[in-house]
C-alpha cells in the first residue's frame, strides 16, 4: 500500500471532524474522496500532511509511520498537496513558487551560495531547467517571470499543482482542484491529472465536488459524511448508493 | 576560478571605496565631524540590513533590534577594554565576539518566541528589549566595567572608515548572496505562507531561526563598531526608541529591499545631522517632528518603500534568473 490510513480520528472540541476513517491508496491508484461540505475531507488531508495531529489512528506511507512527524518531513518522505483555497506564494514569481518547492532536493550548500562557487551556478541552472520542465507541462512556461498573484484563476490552480509536483512526491493530495473552473477547464484538468499520474508515477487522492471529474477519472471512491466514511466502491456503485444520495440530497419523503 | 575572480572583485571594490573616503578625509576635503557621521551611517546601515533580513525577508516582526545592538556593543567594548588595548587584530575578534554574543542570545530567545506569529512575536521581542535595557542600566552591579546607568567610559576609539566599510560590504554581500539563492527563497516562502512552505518541504522554524540569528549578529557587530566610534556607551542608546528608528529605516527603504535599506540608513543619519546644521539653534529638536512627517508622507506616496522592487545592479542576483 502506498498510503494506509486506519481508524483516523480528530476532534475539535465536541465536533468529531474525522471519526475512525480507514482509507487505502494503492500504488498508481487514483482515489476520489467526496462528500458534502463539512464532512471532514480536508481535515483528513491536514492530518495526513501533518498540519494537525490525529487524536487516534495511524497513517503510513509505504509502511512508514507519519503520525507526529512535522509537515516538512512528511513532504520529504513523498507526500505533496494542494489547498482548497490556493495557497501560492502570491507575491513571488511563478518560477520562485516552483523553485521553492524543489528546495529539499537542492544540489548545493549554503556555503556554495555565499561564496558563489561554480557548484552554485550549476545548481541554479539545473534548477531553472527543472522549473521550465514542470511549467511547460502545465503550459505556464511563458508566465515564469510573472507574479503568481497576477495569474488568472485557472493558471493559479495549475501552478499550485506544478508546485506540488516540484517537491517530487510519490503521493499527491489534490484538494478540490476544479473548484471555480468552467466545464472546458475541468475537462483539461482531467487530462492533466491523468497525464501527470502517468508521467511521474503518482498515486493520487482527490477531493472534489464536481461529479463529472471524480466519476470520470477516479478508479475508486470513498464518500464521507459527518466525519465517517459512509460508502466506498467504484464510481458506478457509488452513483446508485442510497446512503450517498441521502447524504447529498436528503432523505426521500413519500409524496402524498 | 570563479571564486578567485569574485574575491578579487570584492577586494577591489573594498579598497576603492575605503581608500577613496579615507584619502578624502586625510586630505581635508571632508571634515572629521562628517567623517564620524559617515561612519555612524555605515554602522546604522549594517544594523538595518540585519533587521531587513529579519523583518523584510523572513517577515519576523521584531521590536527588540536595539537590544541586540546593545549586547554586541557592550560585549565588544568590555572585551576590548579589559583585554584588547589598542590591538587591531583584537578589535576584529572583539567585534566578531559581539556579533556572536548577539547571535547566541538571539538563538536562545528565538527557541520559544519564533513559534509565535507576527504581532505576538513583536510583543515578545518588545519585552525582551525592555528587559535588556534594565540589564544595561544595572550592569555595573555584576560587571563594574560596564558602568550601568552612569554609562561606560574608557573605550578605545578604534572604529575607522576601513572597518565600517568592510563590515557594511560584508553584510551586503551576505544578504545578497543568500537571498538570491535557494536558501534565501526558502526564507521568503516562510514570510509568504508558512503552512504552504511547510507542506512543500521547507523547515520553516529552521529558516526563521537562521534569519533571526543572522540579522541579530549584524546588529551585534554594528553595536561593537558603534561602541568604539564614540568611546562611550549609555543604556539609553539601546532603548525601545532605537529599535523603532531602525524599523522606520527598514520600512521607508522598503521591506525586503537591500538598496532601499542602504539609502534610507544614510538618508536618516544625514538628515538628522543635516537638520542640526540647517535649523536655527533652539529649534534643533524639531528634527523629531520633521522625521515622523517625512515617514507619513513616504507611506502615503510610496508604501512599498523608496525603491519598490528595484535593487542597485550590484545587489541583484546574477545567474539566478
Task: Walk me through the structure.
The complex is a heterodimer of chains A (256) and B (321). Chain A is built from 10 helices and 10 strands. With 256 residues, chain A is of the alpha/beta class. A 6-stranded mixed beta sheet of chain A has the order 6-7-8-3-9-10, sandwiched between helices. Chain A has a 4-stranded antiparallel beta sheet with strand order 2-1-4-5, covered by helices on one side. In chain A, helix 3 packs parallel to helix 6 and helix 5 packs across helix 6. The longest helix of chain A is centred in the middle third of the chain and has 20 residues. Chain A starts with a strand and ends in a 7-residue tail after the last helix. The mean pLDDT of chain A is 91. Chain B has a domain of 207 residues. In chain B, helix 10 crosses helix 11. Chain B has 321 residues and is mainly alpha-helical. Chain B is 72% helix and 0% strand. The chains are: A alpha/beta (256), B mainly alpha (321).
Rounded mean pLDDT score of chain B: 91
* CATH homologous superfamily designation of the largest domain in chain A: P-loop containing nucleotide triphosphate hydrolases
How many β-strand stretches of chain A? 10
Order of helices and strands of chain B: HHHHHHHHHHHH
Instruction: Profile the largest sheet of chain B.
Output: none
What is the third-level CATH name, the topology of the largest domain in chain A? Rossmann fold
Structural class based on helices, strands and sheet pairing of chain B: mainly alpha
Number of helices of chain B: 12
Task: Provide a short characterization of the protein structure.
Chain A is an alpha/beta fold and 256 residues long.
Protein topology:
The complex is a heterodimer of chains A (256) and B (321).
Chain A: E1 3-12, E2 15-25, E3 30-34, H1 41-48, E4 56-61, E5 64-65, H2 71-77, E6 79-81, H3 94-101, H4 110-115, H5 118-137, H6 153-166, E7 171-175, H7 183-200, E8 203-207, H8 211-217, E9 220-225, E10 228-233, H9 235-240, H10 242-249
Parallel strand pairs in A: 3-8, 3-9, 6-7, 7-8
Antiparallel strand pairs in A: 1-2, 1-4, 4-5, 9-10
Chain B: H1 2-26, H2 32-57, H3 65-84, H4 88-113, H5 118-137, H6 161-179, H7 182-192, H8 194-199, H9 204-230, H10 240-253, H11 258-278, H12 287-301
Helix pairs in contact in B: 1-6, 2-6, 2-9, 2-10, 2-11, 3-4, 3-5, 3-9, 4-9, 6-9, 7-9, 10-11
Amino acid at each position: 500500500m502506498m498510503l494506509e490510513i486506519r481508524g483516523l480520528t480528530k476532534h475539535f472540541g465536541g465536533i468529531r471532524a474525522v471519526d475512525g476513517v480507514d482509507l487505502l491508496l494503492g500504488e498508481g491508484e487514483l482515489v476520489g474522496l467526496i462528500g458534502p461540505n463539512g464532512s471532514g475531507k480536508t481535515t483528513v488531508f491536514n492530518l495526513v500532511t501533518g498540519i494537525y495531529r490525529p487524536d487516534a489512528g495511524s497513517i503510513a506511507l509505504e509502511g512508514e509511520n507519519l503520525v507526529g512527524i512535522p509537515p516538512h518531513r512528511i513532504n520529504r518522505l513523498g507526500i505533496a498537496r494542494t489547498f482548497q483555497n490556493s495557497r501560492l506564494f502570491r507575491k513571488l514569481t511563478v518560477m520562485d513558487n516552483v523553485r521553492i518547492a524543489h528546495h529539499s532536493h537542492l544540489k548545493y550548500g549554503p556555503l556554495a551560495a555565499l561564496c558563489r562557487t561554480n557548484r552554485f551556478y550549476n545548481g541554479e541552472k539545473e534548477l531553472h531547467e527543472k522549473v521550465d520542465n514542470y511549467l511547460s507541462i502545465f503550459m505556464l512556461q511563458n508566465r515564469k517571470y510573472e507574479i503568481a498573484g497576477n495569474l488568472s484563476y485557472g493558471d493559479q490552480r495549475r501552478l499550485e499543482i506544478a508546485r506540488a509536483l516540484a517537491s517530487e512526491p510519490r503521493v499527491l493530495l489534490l484538494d478540490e482542484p476544479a473548484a471555480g473552473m468552467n466545464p472546458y477547464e475541468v475537462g483539461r484538468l482531467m487530462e492533466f491529472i491523468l497525464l501527470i499520474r502517468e508521467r511521474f508515477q503518482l498515486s493520487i487522492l482527490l477531493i472534489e465536488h464536481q461529479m463529472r471529474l471524480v466519476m470520470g477519472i477516479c478508479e475508486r471512491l470513498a464518500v464521507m459524511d459527518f466525519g465517517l466514511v459512509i460508502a466506498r466502491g467504484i464510481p458506478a456503485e457509488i452513483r446508485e448508493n442510497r446512503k450517498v444520495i441521502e447524504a447529498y440530497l436528503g432523505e426521500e419523503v413519500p409524496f402524498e | 576560478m570563479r571564486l578567485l575572480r569574485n574575491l578579487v572583485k570584492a577586494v577591489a571594490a573594498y579598497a576603492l571605496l575605503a581608500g577613496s573616503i579615507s584619502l578624502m578625509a586625510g586630505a581635508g576635503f571632508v571634515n572629521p565631524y562628517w567623517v564620524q557621521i559617515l561612519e555612524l551611517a555605515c554602522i546604522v546601515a549594517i544594523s538595518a540590513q540585519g533587521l531587513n533580513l529579519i523583518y523584510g525577508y523572513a517577515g519576523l516582526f521584531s521590536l527588540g533590534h536595539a537590544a541586540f545592538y546593545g549586547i554586541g556593543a557592550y560585549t565588544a567594548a568590555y572585551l576590548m577594554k579589559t583585554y584588547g588595548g589598542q590591538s587591531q587584530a583584537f578589535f576584529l575578534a572583539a567585534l566578531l565576539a559581539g556579533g556572536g554574543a548577539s547571535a547566541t542570545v538571539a538563538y536562545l530567545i528565538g527557541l520559544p518566541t519564533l513559534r509565535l506569529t507576527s504581532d505576538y512575536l513583536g510583543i515578545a521581542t518588545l519585552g525582551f528589549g525592555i528587559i535588556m535595557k534594565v540589564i544595561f542600566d544595572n550592569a555595573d552591579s555584576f560587571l563594574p566595567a560596564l558602568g550601568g546607568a552612569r554609562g561606560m567610559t574608557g573605550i578605545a576609539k578604534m572604529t575607522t572608515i576601513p572597518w565600517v566599510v568592510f563590515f557594511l560590504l560584508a553584510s551586503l554581500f551576505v544578504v545578497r548572496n543568500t537571498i538570491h539563492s535557494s536558501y534565501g527563497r526558502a526564507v521568503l516562502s516562510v514570510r509568504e505562507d508558512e503552512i504552504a512552505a511547510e507542506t512543500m518541504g521547507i523547515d520553516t522554524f529552521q529558516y526563521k531561526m537562521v534569519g533571526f540569528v543572522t540579522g541579530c549578529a549584524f546588529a551585534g557587530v554594528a553595536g561593537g563598531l558603534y561602541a568604539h566610534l564614540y568611546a562611550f556607551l549609555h543604556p539609553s542608546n539601546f532603548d525601545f526608541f532605537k529599535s523603532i528608528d531602525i524599523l522606520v529605516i527598514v520600512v521607508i527603504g522598503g521591506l525586503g529591499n537591500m538598496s532601499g535599506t542602504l539609502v534610507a540608513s544614510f538618508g536618516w543619519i544625514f538628515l538628522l545631522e543635516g537638520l542640526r546644521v540647517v535649523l536655527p539653534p533652539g529649534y534643533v529638536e524639531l528634527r523629531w517632528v520633521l522625521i515622523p512627517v517625512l515617514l507619513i508622507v513616504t507611506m502615503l506616496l510610496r508604501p512599498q518603500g523608496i525603491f519598490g522592487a528595484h535593487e542597485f545592479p550590484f545587489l541583484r542576483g546574477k545567474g539566478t534568473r
